Amino acid sequence: MDTIFANIRRLGLLIATVLLASSFAVVVSAETTFEKIKQTGKVTVGTEAAFPPFEFIEDGKIVGYGKDILDTVIADLDVELNQLDLPWQGILPGILAGKFDFVATSVTIKPDRAKQYAFTVPIAEGTTWIMKRKGDTSIKTVDDMAGKVVGTQLSSGNEAAAKEFQKDMISRGLKGFGELKLFTSYPEVTLALANGTLDVAVQNLPNLAVIIKNQPDLFELVGPITDTSYLAWVTRPEDTDLRDYLSQQILKMRDSGKIDELQEKWFGFKMEIPNKGYLPDGAL
Questions:
Q1: Greatest CA separation found in the chain?
Q2: Which of 63, 247, 265, 283 has the fewest CB atoms within 10 Å, i.e. is most exposed?
Q3: Helix, strand, coil proportions of the chain in percent (round to 5)?
Q4: How many C-beta atoms surround the C-beta of residue 21 within 10 A?
Q5: For residue 22, is pLDDT > 90?
Q6: Per-residue pLDDT reduced to its tens digit, 235-246
Q7: Domains of the chain, start order
Q8: Given its phi and psi angles, is residue 115 left (phi above 0), alpha (psi -120 to 50 degrees) or beta?
Q9: Neighbours of 7 (CB within 10 A)
Q10: Which contiguous run of DSSP H or E holds residue 232?
């Protein structure tokens, strides 16, 4: 009989231990990404370092406008940074899969994305423009893309913008593009335009403005194909506390004049950083 009672007591202790462990696991799993960052003293971010002058590689290191903003944020957090350099096509799927803590690369704010990801306040304007080779008189307006070979980055906001503009052209009785070529990175798009593979490059205005500033004899702007839009960072939808912290830091830099300083450094001009009205309806 004593053996039976002893076994029951051991079984009860085992059940209690399992329940305690389960409750502890629930507490741990309830920890937010922001809390984890502060507790571990480490943060991992996803970046596409092929988007100059926002993020790019120089002397083996990630540099740029976005990197300077990130360094300021990391200094405030006082944590160790692990910055992953990834192809753009892996950035947004990667954040949802939990491969890093937030996206510290420039993401165009779009209605469909704003329902899937938590966007920070903007870090720059992201309006989609087109660029041509200098002296190409066959392209004077954006409608002259009809029948032309157009290029942009695969799975980017600019791919979606180009396709939407082509639909608009066709609805107005114009021809569509001769071809839409998609590339892994934007530097590949610029090279293809320079060597004649493309007639038109589609990209965000700040990037194109810097390309033309650096190579004024090769390229020139034509015009916008979207309304004014913005670029921002993103977190997972459940990490709104982290998103809010990042937004606070960006606005703090804006209000102190630091953002203006960095924009002059990397772009040579200033861009508006709004704190409202930049998100579409239904955004997280």
A1: 100
A2: 265
A3: 45, 25, 35
A4: 10
A5: no
A6: 999 999 999 999
A7: 33-126+230-266 (3.40.190.10), 128-224 (3.40.190.10)
A8: alpha
A9: 10
A10: strand 230-235
Q: Give the integer Cα–Cα distance in Å for 28 and 24.
A: 6
**Hey, is 141 helix, strand or coil?**
coil
CB atoms within 10 A of CB 246: 27
Name the phi and psi angles at 230, rounded to 5.
Answer: -135, 160
Q: Are the beta carbons of 46 and 88 closer than 8 angstroms? A: no
Residue 100, SS3 per DSSP: coil
- Write the CB contacts of 170 (distance below 8 Å, at least 6 apart in sequence): 176
Query: Coil, strand, or helix at residue 230?
Result: strand
* Residue 158, strand partner residues: none
> How far out from the chain centre does Cα 114 lie?
12
| φ and ψ at residue 262, rounded to 5 degrees | -70, -35
Please name which of 193, 203, 196 lies closest in space to residue 162, comparing C-alpha atoms: 203
Q: What is the mean pLDDT of the chain?
A: 92
pLDDT in tens, 101-159: 999 999 999 999 999 999 999 999 999 999 999 999 999 999 999 999 999 999 999 99
Model pLDDT, residue 30:
60
Using DSSP's 3-state secondary structure scheme, residue 115 falls into coil
Compute φ and ψ for 107, nearest 5 degrees. Answer: -115, 125
E strand or H helix at 61: strand 61-63
Q: Which of 162, 235, 145, 191 is nearest to 52 (CA)?
A: 191
Tens digit of each residue's pLDDT (9 = 90 or more) over 200-257? 999 999 999 999 999 999 999 999 999 999 999 999 999 999 999 999 999 999 999 9
